[in-house]
Write the structure tokens for this entry.
Amino acid sequence: MESLHQDDDKRALRRSLRRQRQALSQHEQRLAAQRLCQQLKTLPEIRRARRISLYLPVNGEIDPMTLLPWLRKRKVEVYLPVLRPFSANALWFVAYHSGTPMVKNRFGIWEPDLRFGAQRRNRLPAWALDTLIVPLVGFDNSANRMGMGGGFYDRSLAFMHRPGPAPTLIGVAHACQQVASLPVEPWDVPLQVVVSDQGYVRRQ
Ligand SMILES: Nc1ncnc2c1ncn2[C@@H]1O[C@H](COP(=O)(O)OP(=O)(O)OP(=O)(O)O)[C@@H](O)[C@H]1O
Ligand SMILES: [Mg+2]
């Protein structure tokens, strides 16, 4: 019963945080993206990155793509997530360039088109990146993350629970997505830091 209540609470919290994010105007979104970009550029973890994944925003998510020109100048390799075909709810990462053929996935999110052999061959699992910019619905004062609820990032990053490669995980969000404390599940993969348009919180 206890866990049923928790599920209901989580669902309600997700809904309310998503609603707040979606209520932001285009102008507020643009401003937030610029401020996020300024914050990110000062972060040592980002300045170290050589192979990084970003994401294309949906449903009012903060837009990390404003960082793209700066990353290009620094010759950082930029990747976008794609849904892994024939595999339940996990992600691959494909290099993103100006000419990358894109297609909408089953959630209506644009992603590099895996029907192109070159992209299929050059896909990477998350452990091959050194830095991931991770979207989220909510974050708390200790940098705990609540995602969309599909477990996509958690599944793709499950290797982080074992010794081995450990890319830097940076959550990004609007400041209005912060709450005091979130429930943490055993499968949740912790982020090192969450950056918003108004600052950042680090994992203790
Ligand atoms: N490593 C894993 N292996 C199998 N199932 C997993 C794994 N990680 C998460 N899940 C499943 O995914 C479901 C959703 O997890 P959770 O509520 O943490 O989603 P989320 O973190 O909000 O989603 P996302 O990672 O897509 O942003 C859970 O029911 C959980 O059982
Ligand atoms: Mg999770």
